[in-house]
Amino acid sequence: FYSASFGAILLLSAALLALAVAVALAARQGTAALMGQAQNHTNLLLALSIIWIYVEATTLIIVWGGDLPHEVEFYLKRLEGPWGGVAALWAVGGFLLPFLYLLTNLPKREARYLLPVALWIPLFRLLHLAWYVLPALGRGVGIGEVLGFLGLGLFFLQRLRNPS
């Protein structure tokens, strides 16, 4: 199954990941690097999150409403069993919680409040990517996938501490 919206979903997801990493790196250098820009960065993160979930949700609704077996199978593999829990986790943790946090005035007024959400978003972007790719392997998640996922997260955190 393929859809033209998958490219848009992955592009928006990558843009959200890149912006979150850029904000995290700037916040790591201190609030002076983001001085006066906290509201702009917050609004960009918020806008990209909204556009991403909109395209994601409309794709699901269109595919599910079309009820074509070869298309619905893509979502059936990802919404049943343990992958259903992963889908709920990234929907709540990857969209709802950051969305609600970014709506508050804290990250808009002070750049230091952007750092938690800027670190949170990349973890769920990677989980979202795993949700797209791993169920297609036709088996459960093995230790290799878990270690690879954790390794990417540790690599990101290590690079955040030591950029050189």
> Helices and strands: which structural class?
mainly alpha
Largest sheet: none
Radius of gyration: 17 Å
**What is the global morphology?**
globular
What is the number of helical segments per DSSP (H or I, 4+ residues)? 7
The tally of structural domains comes to 1
Strand content: under 5%
Average per-residue pLDDT, rounded, comes to 85
Low-confidence segments, given as residue ranges, are none
Order of helices and strands: HHHHHHH
Helix amount, in percent? over 70%
Transmembrane segments: 6-25, 45-66, 86-106, 113-134, 140-157
Keywords: Membrane, Transmembrane, Transmembrane helix
Sum up the structure in keywords:
164 residues, transmembrane, single chain, mainly alpha, membrane, 0% strand, transmembrane helix, globular
What can you see in these coordinates?
With 164 residues, this protein is mainly α. It has one domain (4-161). It contains seven helices and no strands. The protein has helices at 4-28, 38-66, 69-79, 82-103, 106-109, 114-133, 143-161. α1 runs antiparallel to α2 and α4 runs antiparallel to α6. The longest helix is centred in the first third of the chain and has 29 residues, at 38-66. The chain is globular, with a radius of gyration of 17 Å. The N and C termini lie far apart (42 Å). The mean pLDDT is 85. Keywords: Membrane, Transmembrane, Transmembrane helix. The chain crosses the membrane at residues 6-25, 45-66, 86-106, 113-134, 140-157.
